[in-house]
């Protein structure tokens, strides 16, 4: 399905998203629940960071963001099938995944637009609290650390040119570097 000269690039970027979403610091130090839903939400957050970069640079020529989206959801579907879900169950779950993805991306996008307007993390932190923490009681410090992490990685990618980001496979800052 994904046979093109850019397949390895898409796989590398997706792997960066997955690797950073699995960082133990989220689960051990920042009290994110180690559950399927929370891991999925961290994948969405990291995807948002990269997709926001593509929006900011107006990447219509390379269309890497669309290929990344397609690859990501193809992988989600394959994982469900490997877990033993049949066609009907896979279709129902994929609809839920896509709906959750778009809802969270919209929430982060609106919050990021507000951040760009007034440099306040408050709306972004509300989105993190709602999506990553499911509104459970958690310290503002931890929520703000993840918010700063997201914003600083968008800024990092925007300071690099396209080729640098691709060559570095969208290497995220570590949470300890924020």
Which helices and strands, and how do they pair?
Blueprint: H1 7-21, H2 24-28, H3 36-57, H4 64-82, H5 87-118, H6 122-131, H7 140-159, H8 162-167
Helix pairs in contact: 1-3, 1-4, 3-5, 3-7, 4-5, 5-6, 6-7
Tell me what you see in this structure.
The chain has 178 residues and is mainly α. The chain has one domain (7-177). Helix content is 72%, strand content 0%. The protein has helices at 7-21, 24-28, 36-57, 64-82, 87-118, 122-131, 140-159, 162-167. The mean pLDDT is 90.
Mean pLDDT: 90
User: In the residues, how many domains can be counted?
Assistant: 1
| Regions with little confidence, pLDDT below 50 for 5+ residues | none
* First and last CA, distance: 38 Å
Order of helices and strands: HHHHHHHH
Class by SSE composition:
mainly alpha
At a glance:
By secondary structure, the protein is mainly alpha-helical. It has eight helices and no strands. The chain has helices at 7-21, 24-28, 36-57, 64-82, 87-118, 122-131, 140-159, 162-167.
Name its key features.
single chain; mainly alpha; 8 helices
């Amino acid at each position: 399905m994904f046979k093109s000269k850019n397949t390895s690039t898409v796989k590398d970027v997706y792997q960066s998203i997955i690797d950073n979403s699995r960082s133990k610091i989220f689960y051990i130090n920042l009290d994110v629940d180690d559950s399927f839903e929370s891991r999925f939400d961290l994948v969405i957050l990291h995807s948002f960071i990269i997709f926001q970069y593509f929006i900011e640079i107006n990447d219509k020529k390379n269309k890497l963001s669309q290929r990344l989206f397609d690859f990501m959801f193809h992988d989600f579907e394959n994982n469900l099938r490997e877990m033993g879900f049949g066609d009907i169950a896979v279709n129902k779950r994929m609809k839920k995944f896509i709906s959750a993805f778009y809802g969270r991306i919209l929430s982060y996008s609106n919050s990021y637009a507000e951040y760009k307007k007034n440099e306040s993390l408050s709306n972004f932190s509300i989105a993190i609290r709602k999506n990553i923490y499911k509104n459970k009681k958690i310290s503002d410090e931890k929520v703000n650390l993840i918010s700063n992490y997201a914003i600083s990685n968008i800024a990092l990618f925007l300071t690099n040119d396209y080729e640098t980001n691709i060559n570095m496979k969208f290497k995220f800052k570590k949470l300890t570097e924020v």
